[in-house]
Amino acid sequence: MLAREAGEHIAAARAGHVEVHATKSSAVDVVTAVDKESEELLFERLGQLRPGDGFLGEEGKARESTTGVTWVVDPIDGTVNFLYNIPHYAVSIAAVTGEAKPGAWQVEAGAIFNPATGEMFSAARGEGSYLGDQRLQISSPPPMNLALLATGFAYSSAMRREQARVIAELLPEFRDIRRFGTASLDLASVATGRVDVYFERTLMPWDHAAGELVVTEAGGVIEGLGGQPPGREGLFAGHPELVAQLKSRIVALQGDTLLSEIPGWGLE
Ligand code: IPD
Ligand code: CA
User: Fold this and answer.
1) In ligand 1, which atom is closest to the CA atom of 207?
2) Given this model, what pLDDT does residue 77 score?
3) Identical fold, 2-135 and 144-261
4) Average pLDDT of 231-258?
5) Which atom, in ligand 1's list, is nearest to the CA of 81?
6) Mean pLDDT of 238-258
7) Is the shortest distance between the CB of 211 and ligand 1 below 6 Å?
8) How far is the CA of 198 from the centre of ligand 1 (A)?
């Protein structure tokens, strides 16, 4: 499987010296040479195996689709973990049909591979969600005060200030929070029951394309915020009851302000 091939490449590279190659939206939004190599490998291999399919990758590789299928790829999700050698990063690959855009796409298949642990999460539409060969099913949720909430923060400090305000209110209301640093694995964690619910704002399409299907095929829901499709404005994942409770708390805390109305949200 391609996610495994790219994952093995990045794990081998991690055994050597890794450094920041460039920064993107802010000084803490980094890319290493290995992110680029992994994306290059996936772009080439998919071009050979599936000529005509489109490609949308985090590091800029793109190809128009002539088949209706587009591969949405994060060559290393959790780049900061990768940089610090925290064994919690992943290659995330999804095949989508329709317009390759959250809300418009239909995710047909997804794979998320953590090469540091060897765990492979996968899903195909209508065929269930798996960790290795073990089928995943979300169970009934605990009450909110006993639920473990996963989230993540943006690379922009203005946005983090806003996220910190909301999370400071939520923390006393949940069992605890986790910030693991890899959105695709957060979604996989919802499907496996390692966390009960997940919420994040400012995600990019490659962060959640594969994870969306892993969650929904395990019986969970993926929802957006403020009437927007799940994605940049906000994305919730989990059992529908817990997602509804968390969403109503976030709205009550005015944590649903449109990104465009948060001064400096996309800036360093
Ligand atoms: C990031 C991770 C992180 C999330 C950020 C993402 P990257 O992806 O998924 O957990 O909080 O929103 O941008 O930059 O490591 O590919
Ligand atoms: Ca990435």
Assistant:
1) 9
2) 97
3) no
4) 97
5) 15
6) 96
7) no
8) 14
**Calculated CA dihedral for residues 40, 41, 47, 49, nearest 10 degrees:** -170
Q: What are phi and psi of 130, to 5 degrees?
A: -140, 145
Give the residue extent of every domain in the chain.
Answer: 2-135, 144-261
Atom of ligand 1 nearest to the CA of 204: 13
Measured in whole angstroms, the distance separating CA 238 from the mean position of its chain's CA atoms is 14
Q: What CATH number labels 2-135?
A: 3.30.540.10
* Residue 22: per-residue pLDDT: 77
Q: Which of 234, 245, 108 is nearest to 174 (CA)?
A: 245
The CATH topology of domain 144-261 is D-Maltodextrin-Binding Protein; domain 2 (3.40.190)
20 - beta bridge partners?
32
Per-residue 3-state assignment (H helix, E strand, C coil) for the chain:
CHHHHHHHHHHHHHCCCCCEEEECCCCCCEEEHHHHHHHHHHHHHHHHHCCCCEEEECCCCEECCCCCEEEEEEEEECHHHHHCCCCCCEEEEEEEECCCCCCCCEEEEEEEEECCCCEEEEEECCCCEEECCEECCCCCCCCHHHCEEEECCCCCHHHHHHHHHHHHHHHHHCCEEECCCCHHHHHHHHHHCCCCEEEECCCCHHHHHHHHHHHHCCCCEEECCCCCCCECCEEEEECHHHHHHHHHHHHHCCCCCCHHHCCCCCCC
The predicted model scores a pTM of 0.96
Out of 10, 32, 35, 77, give the residue to mutate to test ligand 1, the one with the largest number of ligand atoms within 8 Å of its CB: 77
For residue 215, the CA-to-ligand 2 centroid distance in Å is 20
Token readout for 202 is 């400012």
